[in-house]
Amino acid sequence: MMKKSLLALALSAGFAFSAQAADIVDTAIGAGNFKTLVAAVQAAGLVDTLKGPGPFTVFAPTDAAFAKIPKETLDGLLKDKAALTKILTYHVVAGKVMAKDVKPGMVKTVQGSDITLATTGGVTVNGAKVVAADVAADNGVIHAIDTVIMPK
After folding, report:
1. Of the four listed, 45, 90, 142, 150, which is most buried by Cβ atoms within 10 Å?
2. What is the pLDDT of residue 152?
């Protein structure tokens, strides 16, 4: 976990001196454990949004989290742009919220529904555990989670 956070920070610092900023998408690509999420963001047409000014807090399912979804279900979602967009935007909150600033309770997502945050024994979102917190990006922050959360 520490390596991934350091890698993301190193990427953020490196990109700060180049013409291209390390936004949420670039940071997720650089971290290396969000390949499925990045593919889903691309399939849903959300790349430009997550490269936008934000700020955003993204509760980002890792590749291992996506691996918990049956392949047929995941393949179907990747082909259903509307359903995929609904699920992905359910993982995003407006604003930049670092782990130390998370308050337990309900928070509205970009998708429009609420998620439940808890802080007992570490940060969780709808029961999914944050496995790597505070992965900084120029337009927000990523918190890696161990499960894909689904809107009701």
Report:
1. 142
2. 82
Torsion of CA 80, 109, 140, 117, to 10 degrees: -120
Which superfamily does CATH assign the domain made up of 2-145 to?
A: FAS1 domain (2.30.180.10)
DSSP 71-136: HHHHHHHHH-HHHHHHHHHTTEEES---GGG--SEEEE-TTSSEEEEE-TTS-EETTEEEEEEEEE
Residues 124-149 have pLDDT tens digits of 999 999 999 999 999 999 999 999 99
Peptide bond connecting 55 to the previous residue in cis, omega within 30 degrees of 0: yes
Global pTM reads: 0.84
pLDDT at 21: 52
What's the mean pLDDT in 48-68? 94
In whole angstroms, give the CA distance from residue 34 to residue 92: 15
For residue 38 the two structure tokens come to 């990045």
Query: In this structure, how many other beta carbons lie within 10 angstroms of the beta carbon of residue 69?
Result: 17
Q: Which two tokens stand for residue 24?
A: 């949420």
